[in-house]
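pinned: reference chain
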Amino acid sequence: RTARWYDSLLLWRTATGLALGAAVLAVGLNLMTPAPVVQPGPAVEWAAALQPVESDLAVVAVYEDGALRLAASGAPAGAGNDYELWFIEGDDAPISMGIFQTGSSVVSVDESLRERFAQGITLAVTLERAGGSEGGIPAGPVVSAGTVTAI
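pinned: its structure tokens
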């Protein structure tokens, strides 16, 4: 009977040795590869959950990198109206932060308010005529309000 090529002990020992060498090399190279550097995302500092006040508008506001990211759910402001966001600190007069609609939006926080943004600040939403209130004074009803907390 003639020997077949795959019956060779030398062949299988060589193949096993090569496979073991490749595995050791792969593991060694993997251990030598530096881990990828993960860049941290933007620092989230403050958040507020604005609850409906005689309306169905609920707003989650997250402050990060000088802007408020808003997620508002409820009825749209309607034709000829806009929702306006207000910054209220203690007994001071409300300061308009701008208008927005339901859904997701971003409101830039004025430079002068960024350093004042802190726990305990009240954020409120009023229903105003299209374009927002005139003269920087809320004229419409408060439809949602909440307090800023650190996260």
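why pinned: Helices lie at 9-32, 111-114. Strands lie at 44-52, 58-64, 67-73, 81-88, 95-100, 103-108, 122-129, 142-147, 149-150.
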